[in-house]
Amino acid sequence: MFTTKRFTASSMGKPPQRAAAQIGCVFPALTSLLLATTLLLGCGEEKKAEAAAPDVEVVQVVQKDVPITREWVATLTGKVNAQIRAQVAGYLMSQTYQNGVYVKKGTPLFQLDPRTFQAAVEQATGVLQQAKGDLARAVAQQGKTQQDVTRYTPLAAQGAISKQELDDAIQNNLSALAQVEASTAAIASAQASLDGAKLNLGFATITAPIDGIAGIANAQVGDFISPQSANALTTISAVNPILVNFTPSEQDYLKARREMIKVGETETQGMSRLVWQLELTDGSIYNHTGKFYALDRQVNVGTGAILLQVEFPNPDNLLRPGGFGNIRVVTRVDKGALLVPQRAVSDVQSKFLVAVVGSDNKVAIRPVVVGEKTGTEWIVSEGLKPGDRVVAEGIQKVKDGQQVNPKPYQSSSATATESNKGTAN
Fold this sequence. Notes:
The protein has 7 helices and 19 strands. By secondary structure, the protein is of the alpha+beta class. It has 3 domains: about 55-80 and about 240-410, Efflux pump adaptor protein, beta barrel domain (Elongation Factor Tu (Ef-tu), domain 3, Beta Barrel), CATH 2.40.30; about 85-115 and about 205-230, CATH 2.40.50.100; about 115-205, Helix Hairpins (Orthogonal Bundle), CATH 1.10.287.470.
């Protein structure tokens, strides 16, 4: 507190002129002190305000043509997966292929004990020979009865023999003809039995029905094998080309189908023009592209998805049935799309917001309409324009109208690269 005293010539013991001069010097000094204090306080408030402006990382909205890529989890399967089963019953004597190797059609895989089937062939052969002998005798007998009929007919007309004798001759000839027919049928039956026995003998050697990779056998030598066995002996898969199965949602299918209809394409035409890529489980991209193979007839009522198959060349047998991967395809190109990092967009009660930094470094919270995601970025269809600066890092620290201290955005990939460089150095 400053106390003002009254100065007079008497109290000071000095002449009045000198006292007035002293008073004139005191008040300017006080005024200067008060002004300096005010200026110091004002500077402190400015520094405090500057210190309150948070650091944020901003990025400019980029406009460019963006290929829209869709991706699904996929499983691999053979184009044909033939389950190998025995067609006859018998004991397994040998496995004649190596597990897991590529086999050609007709390659022997398993050998059942053939002795039972060989015996059946020999028996059927004997029955056939006997039937042929019976037919020969029946034909000879019928030839004799036919001669009797031929000889008796004119004699009966002349009255040389009775009509009864002619009738008996005719009846005997008809019986002989019936016997010939029966013997002929017996031969056909015996021949069929022989063919069946030979076929079963052939089934005792189980061969590959297709070219492909044969799996590990599910049976061992000495096992009794029959067509009713629960497990297949093995499975052979045709893997070049190989099929990739995945299940896009019904919504994905409807959206793609409407796009095809817009440009006048059939389902097959629209699917066939797409070029498919396969990412393997080790993160590498398979060095062959795929083409559309088939679309299932129905949507799965349990999952709401539809099975789609894409065919990939597999000349080196690198891909095997049962494998996994991610399949992706460019469905269209979005011309002049506006892109921002996904982390720059906040989802607040199903509304998408971005923090736009103006030329005065003040924040404006702005609602936007977003479209497809592409990599780590989001396409914004409404609410931004090219060149806008949006907060990509530190958005949780700002509010509408707040002053910020903007800095260039450093993506996580760039940061990781710089960190790796520092480590290497």
